Amino acid sequence: MERVSMSQAGLEGKLKKVVEKIFEAGYQIEGEAFILLQTLLKSSKPEKVIELTLEEVRKTPEKIFVDKETMEKVYAKLSFLEEEVETSKTQTPTLTHEKVEEAETGKDVWHPYAKEVEDKVEVLKDPTKFLASAGDLENFNRYFRDRFKRLLKILSQRMDVRGYLTVGDVLNERNGVRVKVVGMVSDKVSRGKRIFITLEDFEANITVLIQPDKPDLVEKAQQVFLDQVICVVGFKSTNSLIVAEDLVFPDIPYHKPSRSKEPVSVLLTSDFHVGSKAFEEKLVNRLLAWLKGKIGGERERELAGRVKYLVIAGDLVDGVGLYPQQEKELEIKDIYSQYRAAAKIFEQIPDYVKIVVAPGNHDASRKTLPQPAIQKRFAEPVYQFSNLVMVGNPSQVRLHGVNVLIHHGRSLEDALVTLPNVNHHNVARAMASFLKVRHLAPIYGGKTPIAPEPRDWMVVEQVPDIYHSGHIHVFDYLTYRGVWIINSGCWQRQTSYQKKMGITPIYGVAPLINLQTLNLTPIDFKTIG
Question: How many domains would you assign to the chain?
Answer without folding.
Answer: 3
